[in-house]
């Protein structure tokens, strides 16, 4: 998953913010690389409050290194004791670490 796959959009008509996700083809998915695109793109809408998904993503993106704010791997390794506004290193987070963070039961 790449940073470019996730976009925060503000609707010009209603000023509503939402997040879109562009899913690319993958060889491990049923149907492989020939899979058809989804008819309806998934969206997450701003809800307000401290758990708003749009606000949390905006905060996460603002804490990335300057050269990776709008590109690069989505999951970056965290800096254990950040000294400034950047909380993530330039290094991609490993799949085992991602698996520890997002356990599925």
Short summary:
Helix content is 16%, strand content 20%. It is α+β, with helices and mostly antiparallel strands.
Strand and helix layout:
Elements: E1 6-10, E2 17-21, E3 43-45, H1 53-62, E4 76-78, E5 88-92, H2 95-101
Antiparallel strand pairs: 1-2, 2-3, 4-5
Question: Could you characterize the architecture of this molecule?
Answer:
With 105 residues, the chain is α+β, with helices and mostly antiparallel strands. The chain contains two helices and five strands; from the N terminus they run E-E-E-H-E-E-H. It has helices at 53-62, 95-101, and strands at residues 6-10, 17-21, 43-45, 76-78, 88-92. The strands form two sheets. Strands 1-2-3 form a three-stranded antiparallel β-sheet, with helices on one face. The two termini are 22 Å apart.
